[in-house]
Amino acid sequence: MAAPLGEFDLIARYFTRPVPAGRGDIALAVGDDCALLDPSPGEQWAVSTDTLVESVHFLPSVDPAALGHKALAVNLSDLAACGAEPRCFFLALALPKVDEAVLEAFSGGMFALADAHRCVLAGGDTTRSAQGVVITVTVMGRVPRGQALLRSGAQPGDDVWVSGMLGDAAFGLALRQGGAPVPADARAAVERLERPQPQIGLGVALRGVATAAIDVSDGLLGDLGHILERSAVGARVEWNRVPRSDALRRQAEADQRRFALAGGDDYELLFTAPAGRRGEVERAAAGAGMAVTCIGAVTTTGRLELVDADGRAMDTAPRAFDHFRP
Length: 326
Ligand code: ADP
Ligand code: MG
Hints:
The structure is a single chain. The chain has about 325 residues and is of the alpha+beta class. Helices cover about 35% and strands about 25% of the residues. It binds adenosine-5'-diphosphate (ADP) and magnesium ion (MG). Adenosine-5'-diphosphate binds next to helix 1, strand 4 and strand 5.
């Protein structure tokens, strides 16, 4: 049997690639003590970090290619929520052991998504973990100076919008955890859980149109709550307008609410825009190839209200996932 791969050979084999031609912004990538980045004047770099921990964020049985995709996707989603274009990323890996088949699939899944978004792996760190895999990715993206979408800009009278469909990832997780074979009509939900698509094109298209934005990582109500808090406003959301897939609509009403309102991992964009700019929002979304749905309005109440089809108040209690709360 071949000797196990050492740390430096592992980095060289799975995580070192030449910087593509024409990428003067990445002056130096993997291989030295630091990467050297060379942003252009007039732009700001948006930077974000997310960690995935085995048995907390993913099951040990996960497909390693999907894991590589997701570790980068959740970070790219933060760039999307800022309206930033991906430029490069850093990867810190802690592994209990070296399994080359796993590394091959993991790096393949990760680089396929990275290449689709022209995001260059510029550095990282590789260590042994005592227990379980831990993956930390830091992404950097560019945005023209002053044009980043923030959580803090929502104004009373704005519409509240969301891209795509909500709740499928949480539905997919419930199916996976149920252990039974996933029915054919729900496979797309599991795919949403395992291979989320960051809404980069939409985020960029919404610059100068959206007043505030966030990506839905922890659940609609919780993430909308972050916009309301940072913007010091309230909102009224109509449950019957919350976009759900046909497969989710076939589930019990209580499950639909739980998954679409408080379920995480959808990585859609949730944003606000002035009611007078609906046409621009729709053109931006069409240009990015995404469906967007207006689900409510920003109010002056300071509270998040959820109403049913008859305008009756609904419970907003189970809001979102929190790592340190039961
Ligand atoms: P240092 O000793 O300075 O921490 P390392 O020996 O950890 O440097 O890493 C050597 C080079 O390989 C550095 O350029 C670092 O950014 C890069 N690197 C280490 N691990 C990874 C990884 N998992 N993915 C990408 N680059 C990595
Ligand atoms: Mg190191």
